[in-house]
Write a structure and sequence with these properties.
Layout: H1 2-6, H2 13-34, H3 38-45, H4 48-73, H5 77-97, H6 105-125, H7 130-148, H8 153-177, H9 182-185, H10 188-212, H11 217-223, H12 226-238, H13 245-273
Helix pairs in contact: 2-4, 2-8, 2-10, 3-8, 4-7, 4-8, 5-6, 5-7, 5-12, 5-13, 6-13
């Protein structure tokens, strides 16, 4: 995705998210019609409880997309990777203080590691890593609401995009009317890439959602590290972003927390299986 969004840097970030919502909905509706799931979708859109859960989750998801695209296109690829490294640690915190779960002693150490890593950024750099924190909070909150939603992956994503897509479509039509829309004066390559944001968005989300229901939670947690590792690698070796000592120190604490978190999860899984 960082490689894809970097090709769309000429498009305004808000407009790009609007395109992402509209074209994602087109893709989801095509899949739903192909699978004859129209009745289920109408039922989901007509349920007050479902809408009450999915409207906040759709806002959080759109906010996460906006921060991510702005971060990538403004050169903060490493900061974006930091945000998704924080997500598993935030999920553990939400499980403890929102869902009423219990943290094992090792997980408390993990929370402190993440806190120290963020504090290092604040002290050494002089500012909080806002992009990373915004990505972690929006995606962590989104995951929490999705966990409580009664809808399956396909219908859930379709409802989320359907709730915001009308406003996004109006915004895009206004941009085109004023002559500021990307599709009106962009190159042929850019005009082809913009609608593809729907597929680029929808396919990974669906694969993740279906995979999450079929593999163990510990394995899912480990697999979630792949994306921020790829983003970090792209940031350093492809986009050639600066990775100085202060950033390295902050990342070291957070990576140490992730290692402890993973080891503790694996030990707990082994104990339960025995």
């Amino acid at each position: 995705m960082p490689l894809d969004w970097s090709q769309l840097a000429a498009v305004d970030a808000v407009e790009l998210i609007a395109h992402r919502l509209v074209w994602s909905l087109v893709f989801f509706l095509a899949v739903i019609f192909w699978r004859s799931g129209r009745k289920e979708l109408r039922a989901a859109l007509g349920t007050g409880r479902s809408l009450g859960l999915n409207l906040p989750s759709s806002v959080l998801l759109a906010g996460n997309w906006l921060v991510y695209v702005r971060g990538i296109n403004s050169g903060h690829v490493i900061g974006c990777s930091l945000g998704y490294f924080l997500v598993p640690l935030l999920n553990a915190a939400l499980g403890r203080w929102v869902l009423g779960g219990r943290l094992r002693s090792a997980q408390f150490v993990v929370m402190w590691c993440a806190t120290v890593g963020i504090a290092v950024q604040l002290v050494q750099v002089g500012r909080l890593p806002w992009i990373a924190l915004a990505l972690a909070v929006t995606f962590g909150g989104y995951g929490l609401l999705r966990k409580r939603s009664p809808l399956g992956p396909l219908r859930g994503f379709a409802v989320e995009t359907a709730l915001l897509a009308p406003a996004a479509a109006v915004f895009l039509l206004w941009r085109q009317h004023t002559g500021e829309g990307a599709l009106g004066h962009a190159s042929a390559t850019l005009r082809a890439l913009v609608p593809s944001t729907g597929i680029v968005t929808a396919v990974p989300l669906l694969l993740f959602a279906y995979g999450a229901r079929r593999i163990r939670l510990t394995a899912l947690g480990l697999l979630q590290y792949i994306a921020p590792i790829v983003r970090f690698t792209l940031g350093v070796f492809v986009f050639h972003k600066t990775f100085d000592r202060n950033q390295a120190l902050a990342f070291a604490f957070i990576w140490a927390g992730l290692v402890l978190y993973t080891i503790d999860d694996l030990r707990n899984l082994r104990a339960v299986s025995l």
